[in-house]
Write a structure and sequence with these properties.
single chain, 17 helices, binds ligand NPW, binds adenosine-5'-diphosphate, binds potassium ion, EC 5.1.99.6, Bifunctional NAD(P)H-hydrate repair enzyme
Length: 504
């Protein structure tokens, strides 16, 4: 698990690293730039025949740019270096490295208000080292004009953060002039902006470049934001038991499907059955019985009295994991059935899709949600629950407030799905890809989560494990058959591989 930190926290970690490892700030910059250089050479080998235009500010982000320029120059890449003095005083590290470049006779050009004509070819590459974590106000003036010109380039690699974007909160940033990078090489610590859809087109694909910051210093920083990694899940996985039987592996219930939407029930059920549940029951209207008995013979079907949709859920105490929502529809009687269930149930629920939509239209039922439930809205469903937001930052505030209010977990789905806990901690998922943006992918997640709760995982562990394994199944599917063709069925198909990888 990596901590997502603010710029001021990162500055403290940098400082402690230098003190504890007896490094000067020039040495730390040299290490940072060397790791950037190594990553750049291996990951962007195909740029080797292009001219690399490196744009440096006169702070330490610019310093990183100068050292990277020196290393690329020595390695015989074609580099052109430019710098801009937007701050009245050069940082010491920038100044020292500028001297080194001058001594090595590496050509370097100063841009200023009167001189910023740039000639960059389509195949050329721009490295953006103008501003990093030191940006403290919106970019204006001639630096803004330079950024606008650079944005006409097709290949832009930003160092640490695309210039013009702030690490954590951009609500007071006009965002008029921000580098639109194709890739961002962020220095070791994930920043909140990397996970926000609004800034995705400025950040492009991103990578974290380890520079050996002091682990204790990182430990000492407090943050509510975390980036969840595969290694975190391994610790949560329950060992398999030789004398296990279907009873000890838990009995799950899915309340799912309605006329025309039985596919959702089939997907959730198959996902649950690939996620270790001992026994699975599916509550469904009469029209779904034959479909389910054929498509999912391993599951038992509990038949509703209604032909087309769910109207009445009787006893649920025997189930340890209960998932409700996929393909459920929002018929009047289904709404009543949900209200009845909420009054009846004491164990945490997995609540998805139409069950969320029903709750959104009956806000007074939210207080009936059992403590520790897992709600899995996509942003559209979440908006119905909490109203519109004006920024991603406000969205996270609403998420925290909502989780506290319903004393439950929410997985806000999308790229870097975000799990928020009732205590207000945020965990961004590191698996998953855009190939999963297909109908039915969310139904698969509901099945997985229901199975994990049934097996006795705590809600928090189930949410972390489920979110990670679901995304990993997507990543393996993408590698095996490609993002275009993969769909929800493939997530189920590759789920066993994902569980095996997490267990390795
Ligand atoms: N040992 C280390 O420290 C390491 C640091 N590392 C690297 O350092 C980077 C952070 O460097 P940094 O703190 O010098 O800030 P940076 O982003 O270069 O900005 C420079 C100055 O610009 C100014 N400014 C702000 N906003 C402005 C605006 N809108 N328009 C105009 N000016 C504006 C502001 O100064 P001000 O004008 O407020 O006095 C600010 O101080 C980090 O991203 C990483 O790449 C790595 O090498 C690892 C080791
Ligand atoms: N661009 C993306 N990157 C990563 N994961 C994604 C992306 N788009 C969708 N997903 C994942 O796919 C699932 C889609 O769920 P949802 O929108 O509820 O689909 P449905 O309701 O059709 O089942 C979520 O788990 C989400 O995190
Ligand atoms: K930058």
């Amino acid at each position: 698990m990596k901590k997502v930190l603010s710029s001021s926290a990162i500055r403290r970690v940098d400082k402690k690293t230098m003190e504890r490892l007896s490094l000067s700030s020039l040495q730390l910059m040299e290490i940072a730039a060397f790791n950037l250089f190594q990553f750049f050479c291996s990951h962007f080998q195909f740029y080797q025949t292009s001219t690399i235009h490196i744009f440096c500010g006169n702070g330490n982000n610019g310093g990183d740019g100068l050292v990277l320029a020196r290393m690329l120059f020595k390695a015989k890449w074609k580099v052109k270096v430019y710098y801009l003095r937007f701050s009245s005083k050069d940082s010491n590290e920038f100044a020292a490295n500028l001297n080194q470049l001058n001594e090595m006779k590496i050509p370097i050009e100063e841009l200023n208000e009167n001189r910023f004509d740039l000639s960059i070819q389509q195949s050329d590459v721009v490295i953006d080292a103008l501003f990093g974590s030191g940006l403290n106000r919106s970019v204006q003036g001639f630096v803004g004009k330079v950024i606008d010109i650079l944005n006409q380039s097709e290949h832009i690699v930003a160092i640490d953060i695309p210039s013009g974007l702030m690490a954590a909160d951009n609500r007071n940033n006009s965002l008029e002039h921000v580098i639109k990078a194709t890739a961002t090489l962020s220095i070791q610590v994930p920043k909140l902006c990397l996970f926000q859809p609004t800034y995705a087109e400025c950040i492009g694909e991103w990578h974290l470049i380890d520079i050996g910051l002091d682990h204790m210093a990182l430990e000492e920083e407090q943050t509510p934001y975390y980036f969840l990694e595969r290694s975190d899940i391994k610790k949560l996985i329950k060992p398999s038991r030789t004398f296990a039987h279907k009873g000890t592996n838990g009995h799950g219930l899915l309340i799912s499907g309605s006329f025309g939407m039985m596919g959702a029930a089939v997907l959730s059920a198959n996902a649950a059955l690939r996620s270790g549940v001992g026994l699975l029951s599916i509550h469904t209207p009469k029209c779904g019985v034959e479909i389910l008995q054929q498509a999912v013979p391993q599951a038992m079907v509990e038949v509703d009295i209604h032909q087309y949709f769910t109207t009445c859920i009787q006893s649920v105490e025997q189930y340890k994991g209960i998932g409700i929502g996929p393909g459920l529809g929002q018929a009047e009687n289904t709404q009543k059935a949900i209200h009845h269930l909420l009054q009846l149930v004491i164990q945490p629920l997995v609540i998805d899709a139409d069950a969320l939509n029903i709750l959104a239209s009956h806000q007074d039922w939210l207080s009936l949600i059992p403590t520790g439930s897992i709600l899995t809205p996509h942003p559209g469903e979440f908006k119905r629950l909490v109203g519109e937001w004006n920024s991603d930052e406000e969205k996270l505030e609403k998420l925290k407030e909502f989780c506290g209010k319903v004393k439950s977990y929410v997985i806000l789905k999308g790229a870097f799905s975000c799990l928020c806990t009732p205590e207000g901690l945020f965990y961004f998922n590191s698996t998953g890809n855009e190939g999963m943006a297909k109908g039915g992918s969310g139904d698969v997640l509901t099945g997985i989560l229901t199975a994990l709760l049934a097996q006795g995982y705590t809600s928090e562990s189930a949410a972390m494990f489920g979110m990670m394994v679901h995304g990993l199944a997507g990543d393996i599917a993408a590698e095996s058959i490609g993002k275009v063709s993969m769909n929800a069925l493939d997530l189920i198909e590759f789920l066993p591989h994902a569980f095996m990888q997490l267990n390795d």
